[in-house]
Amino acid sequence: MLNKVNRWLQDSIFKPLEDKKMPVMEHLVEFQVRLTRAVIVLTVIFMGTFFYADALVKWLRVPLQNMFVPRELSWEPTDLPTVPFVFLAPAEALWQNVKVAGLCAIVVAMPYLLYEIWKFVVPGLHVQERRFVGPFVCVSAVAFYAGVGFSFFFVLPFALNFLIAYGVNAGFVPQISIAQYVGFALWFLMVFGLTFEVPLALTLMAKLGWVDAPFLIQYWKWALLGSFVIAAILTPTPDPFNQTLMAGPMFLLYWVGIFGAKMFGKKTASETSPSGVPTVAMAGAGAGGSASRMAMGKSSDDEYVGVPGGRQH
């Protein structure tokens, strides 16, 4: 059975196409067709997400006044006071709904978008390139979702609680523009989704022979400094707390990338056997094998966004 599956993978996916020459116009027509399909699918999904845009925005407000408890798999309200939201322009509230619905539509449609990209570029890849580029594309999507989820459930609540509590303790009254909050939250989610791509990027560079594990280990101090520099640039606020929340996972993922580079990187001459015969390398496709509650409730008042099943205050 395994041999049949392996033979099907080789013949249907990994086996390179015949050396067929396609004129430029034929490439452009294929690109137009696949782009049109992607736009149609994305538009249909956006229509659905925009219908639930108000609910999605309320979901996005949950980390502001709640903390996720992993051992109970539930959200618990924090001690923060009620934080009212305001809009400062006539179309600000509508635009935030469009923004949230659009981003959610992209996230939902991402598997199909990656499929269309794969079908467009696969004829130009050699068999050895298909064997690791395909799985890397799939794993990168899973890693992005993992980064967004990690940020939503753990990082964003801590960051918001710290910032709001600091302002309240300083004697200020919290009153947030919906545009500022949505922009802050979406930026945090997107950055952490991209941060979780660091191990895959390092492993891919090692697979191509650009870097190796000893080289990455040698420059770990520069990676630590770079993590804080990048976090200082990408965080929406300049405070050290949020920079550390972003730089810490980034640096840890750097070491995960070193492990991936060691396991799946390109073999060097020193890793060959004494007789000169290289040791058996792990297939690049194996790099993709390791990857793989909430409804809206009524708030206790007009401003607080609660969580179903949580304590009512």
Give the neighbour order of strands across the main sheet: 1-2
| Major sheet size, sense and barrel closure | 2 strands, antiparallel
**Low-confidence parts, pLDDT < 50 over ≥5 residues?**
272-301
Give the rounded overall mean pLDDT: 77
Q: Indicate how many domains the architecture comprises.
A: 2
The DSSP helix count reads: 10
How many β-strands, per DSSP?
4
Strand content: under 5%
Q: Structural class, please?
A: mainly alpha
Give the H and E element order.
HHHEEEHHEHHHHH
Radius of gyration: 24 Å
Shape: globular
The rounded distance between the terminal residues' Cα atoms is 58 Å
Secondary structure: helix percent = 55-70%
Structural write-up:
With 313 residues, the chain is mainly alpha-helical. It has 2 domains: 25-194, no CATH class; 197-271, no CATH class. It is 64% helix and 4% strand. The protein is built from 10 helices and 4 strands. A two-stranded antiparallel ribbon has the order 1-2. The protein has a two-stranded parallel sheet with strand order 3-4. A hairpin with a 4-residue loop joins strand 1 (66-69) and strand 2. Helix 4 (92-121) runs parallel beside helix 6. The chain is globular and about 65 Å long.
